[in-house]
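B., you asked whether I could sanity-check this one before it goes into the benchmark set. Here's the sequence:
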Amino acid sequence: MERHGDEILVTEKEASNKTRPQGVRWVLAVSLLAALIAMSFVWIIPALS
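And here's what the prediction gave me:
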């Protein structure tokens, strides 16, 4: 954080004050894969009958 008179300059990380979680990518990937498998079963099982 830098101060220039009345103006305060902060970086993006200081302003948001949070970390960017990497677990969100894994949750998205796993849920996308699960949805793809579920939709495939819904389509394939009736097609075999």
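One thing to flag: Residues 21-49 form one domain. Otherwise nothing jumped out at me.
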